[in-house]
Amino acid sequence: MEIISKWYFKPKIERWMNKQKFRKDAIAKLKHIKMHSYKRDRYIIDILYRYIKKIDARYIMLYVPLDIEVDIMPLIRQLRIDKRVLFVPFMEGESFRLVKYRLPLVTKQFGIKEPKYSKQKRRRSIDLSIVPIVGTDATLRRIGFGKGMYDRFFENEKKNIKNTIFISRILSISNQVITDHYDVEADMIITPEKILMRNRHKI
User: Fold this and answer.
1) Burial (0-12, 13-18, 19+ Cβ within 10 Å), 31
2) Which domain range does residue 118 map to?
3) Do the domain assignments include residue 98?
């Protein structure tokens, strides 16, 4: 990972405005390439699957993809065949809780699909969380759609999650620090262009 030695400490409102513009531009790029995303998605899925087998992750947090997010449904199907225990977000208010991935799925707020049946308990410890991003900055913190749901979830649950990987179809990275301290941090970011990781992680 390239080291960015200079940190930019900006007034909060200026950082917020920079973050909003960055998010808007990154989403536009994702919308532009979504019709040509199969090879990008396949590349990311292959790396993820190798890593999951390497660390023998049994309890995995994933997501049901929106159209501009990496389509990990082939990975989900394979992991179910492998008998790994999968969890996905189930929205509640301004955050979400994890429920076991199971069919059927129903479409909820923001066009997000979730398991229909949600009254279930889950194992507390998660070996690996796979999280979609719009972009990131020098800190490897997440820039998402701006709803704050992942931030609120991880604030309460990060102690129970051993590893976190961000994925995206393109690498949108700011050379300035535009995220906040409460934004979710990654151990690794996988994109077709580059893999960014913290020192303790190797693929």
Assistant:
1) exposed
2) 12-197
3) yes
Torsion region of 110: left, alpha or beta (phi above 0 gives left; psi -120 to 50 gives alpha): left
Which residues in the chain come in under a pLDDT of 50?
Answer: 1-9
Is 22 domain-assigned? yes
Count CA within 13 A, CB hemisphere, residue 159: 2
Task: Say if 88 falls within a structural domain.
Answer: yes
44, part of any domain: yes
Specify the pairing of strand 188-190 against strand 164-167.
parallel
> Which tens digits make up the pLDDT trace of 57-96?
999 999 999 999 999 999 999 999 999 999 999 877 677 8
CA 86 vs. chain centroid, Å, equals: 15
Instruction: Assign residue 157 the CATH number of its domain.
Output: 3.40.50.10420
Tokens at residue 132, please?
Answer: 């979609």
For the four alpha carbons of 100, 102, 107 and 113, in that order, the dihedral sign comes to: positive
Tokens describing residue 90: 């189930």
Q: Which is nearest to 187 in space by CA: 51, 25, 29?
A: 51
Residue at 185: amino acid letter: E
CA–CA gap between residue 95 and residue 148 (Å, rounded): 8
Count how many domains the chain has: 1
Q: Cα dihedral angle (125, 110, 134, 140), rounded to 10 degrees?
A: -30
User: Rounded distance, CA 87 to CA 41, Å?
Assistant: 20
The model carries a pTM of: 0.86
